[in-house]
Design brief:
Ser/Thr-sp_prot-phosphatase; 30% helix; Purple Acid Phosphatase, chain A, domain 2; Serine/threonine protein phosphatase 1; single chain; alpha/beta; Metallo-depent_PP-like; phosphatase activity; 6-stranded mixed β-sheet
């Protein structure tokens, strides 16, 4: 449910917002900030696929030793459709899943199995303390309570689906973690609510851009 990473002694650690199948745009953003695959690491808040033209590249990126992602609600769509058959196909299609629904069943299963290995949360050690990465929001007010919350479906659904923090401008702080980085809700600029930082600035939208947050200088 949670994957832990130690400090990066060699380089920088970046977190990127929702990618949604725009990997070439992401590559351009990485080049612009001088990303060095041999020493830097890139963490993703999930939603690697749907909506964009390069969704099938997701597995290639997940195979890179410097790229690490949590699962988002769009990975959840793919997992449920390919491994359980329990998904509203019309809803999935309306949310960009047409590319996936058009794949052969075996290829769908390949994606589903890969996405099902993704954790719901990543935590990274930094000089300032632990930084968490989730897709949508933290289901608890104390990071130490996250494992127990993720053991239940309500906690997992909050983690990948909730927009309540942005809807209500919730400034509450998640204890025992320096910062929590999330995506899911597209915004014009990075917004911090409490110590939860929202970084989906719509790199997958025509008028948006990818935010690459260097968590070493938060």
């Amino acid at each position: 449910m949670i994957r832990h990473f130690g400090k990066n002694a060699a380089g920088r650690d970046f977190v990127v917002g929702d990618i949604h199948g725009y990997f070439s745009r992401l590559q351009e953003a990485l080049a612009a900030c001088g990303f060095a695959p041999g020493k830097d690491r890139l963490f993703s808040v999930g939603d690697l696929v749907d909506r964009g033209p390069e969704c099938e590249l997701a597995l290639d990126w997940l195979a890179q030793p410097w790229f690490h992602a949590v699962r988002g609600n769009h990975e959840d769509y793919a997992i449920r459709h390919s491994l359980t058959g329990r998904v509203d196909v019309d809803n999935y299609m309306a949310n960009g899943g047409g590319w996936f629904l058009g794949l052969p069943a075996q290829r769908q299963k390949e994606f589903g199995l890969a996405f099902d290995k993704l954790p719901y949360a990543i935590e990274v050690e930094t000089a300032k303390g632990l930084v968490g990465v989730l897709h949508a929001d933290c289901p608890v007010r104390d990071w130490k309570d996250l494992p127990a919350a993720l053991a239940g479906k309500p906690g997992r659904m909050t983690t990948i689906w909730s927009r309540e923090r942005t809807q209500y401008s919730d400034q509450s702080v998640v204890q025992n973690v320096y910062a929590v980085i999330v995506g899911h809700t597209p915004l014009r600029e990075v917004v911090a609510l409490g110590n939860v930082v929202h970084i989906d600035t719509g790199g997958w939208l025509e008028q948006g851009h990818f935010t690459l947050l260097d968590i070493g200088v938060l």
